[in-house]
Amino acid sequence: MSRARGLLAPRWLALHTVVAGLAALFVGLGLWQLDRLEQRRTFERIVAERQGRPIAALDHLPSTGGAELEYRRVVLEGRYHANGDVVLIGRALEGRPGNHVLTPLSSGDGPLVLVDRGWVPFDPEGRVPPVARAPAGPVRVTGVLLPGEGGGEVRPAEDGPPSTLTTVDLALLEERSRVPMADLYLHLTAQEPAQPRGIPRL
């Protein structure tokens, strides 16, 4: 009997060690989840506070760095770059497959501001429907400044301006287009004059 107890003792010790290790792991995961929750809530508070500010002219905002301007609502006047459309592929709307149209906008001597003009029906070749072409004249755009997503894949893969992107990769777009781009892009919420026939959809 005493021998059996002696054999069981190491097993119980090992089991207790495993249980203690699992308990420590679960506690660590719980603390990590709480930290992530607090980070998300902090982020949501920052976004809500910035979007709650009055709409400002982009050239009147303080140039304290891109991060300070993220999620601000701004208005900008200028002209879309002719033949500058880039298609952001794989963006659904209300369950319908589609793409987004990204178009650089020039407002003067500064860098171009990439504008996400909205959703168009899916085209496997990444073509922009004729009705969704950007207006040729002056426009006044209102929207929210967002950070680039990075890590985009392009087509064509060779050197030169891309025709499609899988993410809003501002650095890649600037490198391939060889023109200065702002370090934030504008998610369009309103445009004057409005887009004919409501395409792209905001």
Index terms:
202 residues; alpha/beta; five-stranded mixed β-barrel; elongated
Topology:
Elements: H1 2-51, E1 56-57, H2 66-69, E2 73-80, E3 86-88, E4 98-106, E5 113-121, E6 139-147, E7 154-155, E8 164-165, H3 170-177, E9 184-192
Parallel strand pairs: 1-2, 3-8, 5-9
Antiparallel strand pairs: 2-4, 2-6, 3-4, 4-5, 6-9, 7-8
Structural class comes to alpha/beta
Mean pLDDT value: 79
Instruction: Name the strands of the widest sheet in spatial order.
Output: 2-4-5-9-6
Q: pLDDT below 50 for ≥5 consecutive residues: which ranges?
A: none
Number of strands: 9
How are helices and strands ordered from N to C? HEHEEEEEEEHE
Distance between the termini: 79 Å
How would a textbook summarize the main sheet? 5 strands, mixed, barrel
Strand proportion, as a percent range, falls in 25-35%
Helix content: 25-40%
Helix count, DSSP H or I runs of 4 or more residues: 3
**Shape call:** elongated
What is the radius of gyration?
Answer: 25 Å
What can you see in these coordinates?
There is one protein chain. The protein has 202 residues and is α/β, with parallel strands linked by helices. The protein is 31% helix and 26% strand. It has helices at 2-51, 66-69, 170-177, and strands at 56-57, 73-80, 86-88, 98-106, 113-121, 139-147, 154-155, 164-165, 184-192. The protein has a five-stranded mixed β-barrel. The longest helix is centred in the N-terminal third of the chain and has 50 residues, at 2-51. The protein starts with a helix and ends in a 10-residue tail after the last strand. The mean pLDDT is 79.
